UniProtKB/TrEMBL annotation:
SUPFAM superfamilies assigned: NAD(P)-binding Rossmann-fold domains
Every NAD(P)-binding domain range: 10-151
PANTHER family cross-referenced by the UniProt entry: NADH DEHYDROGENASE [UBIQUINONE] 1 ALPHA SUBCOMPLEX SUBUNIT 9, MITOCHONDRIAL (PTHR12126:SF11), NADH-UBIQUINONE OXIDOREDUCTASE 39 KDA SUBUNIT-RELATED (PTHR12126)
Gene3D superfamilies registered for this protein in UniProt: NAD(P)-binding Rossmann-like Domain
Pfam families assigned to the protein according to its UniProt record, in alphabetical order: NAD_binding_10
Molecular function per GO: protein-containing complex binding
Protein's name in the database: LysR family transcriptional regulator
InterPro entries referenced in this protein's UniProt entry, alphabetically: ComplexI_NDUFA9_subunit, NAD(P)-bd_dom, NAD(P)-bd_dom_sf
Domain of life the protein comes from: Bacteria
């Protein structure tokens, strides 16, 4: 293994933290960049933390300093509201520009499985725009399109805010007809680090690999295909919840998730199953 300097923009987030941990485990020097630097007890030991806002006026200088000496920049930022989404577009442009100016050899960008088939979903359109910013940039780029994370479904099954009224009514709401292939964030982190090794680095597992080095798109999903009802039942059992799974139509999302576009049967890269993830997290 060659030691490299890996900068993770969004390194304090769900996926980003897993990338920081995996990069350190592989022996790399690691720098995490985000708007907020977490207090010491919440930092990953061995990583360097740098504060920079990718959409602020001082982004070019801040990101430039953070990328100094970097071999790879991994972009795991997120912004899901109209007010924060510009980190995926204007932010991507600033990150790509700063990476080029710093002589970074590769940008690795975390995206979503088959995202270009989800035009009915506003967030997915923004993610496609993010991908295009990188692909049109001067920085060699590998996009890693991952299936939904195991954690993602907690938003529906357990969230007191997003679907609070429904959970109070005694249901575990799930997307009716959804076909899924969820992946663990630790497996997503492995994939991001596998491809970070070189423009044409192989993945340690089954993945869909398209495009050419420097403009490459890799797709990774979890080890099993499941439907939304099954996932909700497993969630309820693991949480010893007496709430009853109920399938609901979700306008805009239904077609993508019921068509199989959220799955990638040719990319069973993930090793951790949903049940293993539940065993680790339910009641934790
Ligand atoms: N959830 C899923 O199932 C799933 C599946 C496939 C792909 N993805 C993709 O995975 C990516 C990461 O998702 P996540 O759930 O890990 O995100 P997350 O937990 O919300 O983390 C987002 C990270 O971005 C940082 N950030 C936000 N705005 C920033 C800004 N203006 N400048 C610098 N840093 C900023 C945040 O730190 P600060 O707030 O401190 O800045 C944080 O470190 C997303 O792009 C998403 O599309 C998600």
């Amino acid at each position: 293994m060659t030691q490299r300097t890996v900068v993770v923009v969004g390194g304090t987030g769900l996926a980003g933290r897993a990338v920081v941990e995996e990069a350190l485990r592989r022996g790399h020097r690691v720098r995490s960049v985000s708007r907020h630097v977490p207090p010491a007890p919440r930092q990953v030991v061995g990583a360097e933390y740098v504060a920079a806002d990718a959409v602020a006026a001082d982004a070019p200088e801040r990101l430039g300093a953070a990328f100094d000496g970097a071999d790879v920049v991994v972009d795991t930022v997120n912004g899901e509201t109209p007010a924060t989404a510009k980190v995926l577009t204007a932010g991507a442009a600033s990150i790509a520009l700063a990476a080029r100016d710093a002589g970074v050899g590769l940008a690795v960008v975390l995206s979503i499985v088959n995202v270009d088939r989800g035009a009915a979903i506003g967030y997915y359109r923004t993610k496609v725009a993010q991908e295009r910013v990188y692909q049109a940039s001067a920085v060699p780029t590998t996009l890693v399109r991952a299936a939904q994370f195991h954690d993602f479904f907690d938003r529906f099954f357990g969230s007191p805010t997003l679907v609070g009224a429904l959970t109070r009514l005694g249901t575990v709401p799930y997307l009716r007809g959804a076909r899924l292939q969820p992946i663990d964030v630790t497996d997503v982190a492995r994939a991001l680090l596998d491809v970070s090794a070189a423009l044409d680095a192989p993945l340690d597992g089954e993945a869909r690999d398209e495009g050419e080095p420097g403009r490459r798109t890799v797709t990774v999903a979890g080890p099993e295909e499941v439907d939304g009802a099954d996932l909700a039942r497993r969630w309820a059992a693991a949480h010893r919840s007496r709430r009853v799974p109920v399938g609901l139509p979700v306008p805009g999302y239904g077609a993508f998730f019921s068509s199989g576009d959220a799955t990638a049967p040719d990319a069973r890269y993930g090793r951790v199953t949903y049940d293993e993830w539940l065993a680790r997290t339910a009641g934790a």
